[in-house]
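General statements about sequence and structure are easier to judge against a single worked case. No coordinates are needed to read the tokens, only the vocabulary itself. The sequence in question and its structure tokens are set out directly beneath this paragraph.
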Amino acid sequence: MKLYKNMLIAATTGLMLLGSCKDDKFLQETLKDKLSTETAYTNKAQFDALSATMYRSVQLFYNTADLTHEGWILGLGTDVCFDPRDDAAKFNNWGLVNSRETFSADWFNLQYQIIKVANTLIEAASKPGVLWLNEAEKTSTLAEGYFFRGFAYRNLANLYGGVPIVDKPIMESKVDFVKSTREQVYAFAKSDLEYARTYLPLTTTTPGRVVRAAADHVLAEVNISLKDYDGAIAAATRVIDGTDGAYALVNARFGARANEADKNYYYDLFVMGNQNRQAGNTEGIFVAQFEQGPTGAVVLGGTQNFGRPLIERMMWCYIWGFQKGGYTSGSPHDTTGRGVAYVRPTNYTNYTIWKNAGNDLRNTEVNIKRKYYFNAAVGGFAKGDLIPKSYLTLREDTMQWVYPNWQKFGTDKHIAGLPDNGYVRDFYVIRLPETYLLRAEARLAKGGQAQLVADDINAVRARAQAPLVSAANATLDYILDERARELFGEEFRMMTLTRLGKLYERTKAYGYEKSAASVQTYNNLMPIPQDMIDRNVGAFIPNNPGY
């Protein structure tokens, strides 16, 4: 395990461990022992196998560890969610967020792992001697590598600002990486994404494989960061208007549970098996694949750890263990799921953003469960009686046992009726409503397009049957509110807030009281991992201010 950890660290700095761990026998391999891009990849099947490792890394965004680990990128300790079990936990206490903090370091390392594989693919696919069927097969293969590299550098720039740019495989010891500026990293990502959006296919028969719309979506965001607002609007428009394929906001029932009259089409978006185009979903642009077993396809199914994603366990309240409510601890029900309340939505997410919500489908009991019932006769209440707010008198009652469950994170019908292991759903990395909200953001930043900004937001709100926003109220903060309403638990909220420099402000205004009290302005960027800095002995890489 120590060697495996060292391998992951090495990915962040291009095998720079060779310069500081000379006594490690494993790291004394000679280059002839390693795969070489000169000989290892000669046909499309081999490149597909290489691509599969990048898709596996994306799975790890959602399926690496237990407890609050996967909640970090979703906004742990910011305006949208927090750790309800421990006031002293990191991100509740932002004072514990430093250059040796592991959640952000794991994310950093994963991006460089993707970059490492993408660089190998790009270099190998560019060499003569590969047996391509035609030029289109070559360019689409390269485009996949360029997409993932641009995607990873966008993730790094959003969260950490300037980082080292590694643009080719590192085949020997290197300990003198230098830190590029944030703008240089965005520009590098833009170049990759421009290639990807030109040569990726419009459609694919393989669920989860990236297509042109995914590249244009990420390109739109990168262009906003580069203040190329016209470029951002154009990229988002290609996704929205059909140039990049036939995408549309879902407004009718579809998929595996469409015949259940007590649900609605927003609920259908999160039913197991409904996330891919092949299931009739017209919103999923880039979808991380999770199945109960490996599919054998280029985009691997299965799960990396634990046999299933742990999002229901992480995000849902612990109602099935609420003995005060007549439940028997240790006996989860198929209908209640097996949440254990590691990550709780803030009051902002559960309540504030829903003021004046009207008939917004997203806020109905179907999509956010707010009503819980006694499971046995307790204290004068009968089984089946509604648990009233007045009954929840202890802190843990509403921090752990009973709070609103967003139905997108779980199910009332688990596979084989097993709440422990029976929730295995694909995850949206990119979904069409976010593209609309990115275009709204670009139009707002450009200026002079107030009504068009409102129109983009209202496309999302109208689908949800929510009251429309006026042009005068269509601000950046309103867009962030709408992101929370539509995309909570999907968007990488931590990354959205650091990209916009709004993490401090929004956490101070809407975060859990402990997070709001401890967050600092320098937390608008995450720390560069200290391991990466320390091992880069040939050049100094400064950390972000404050760390």
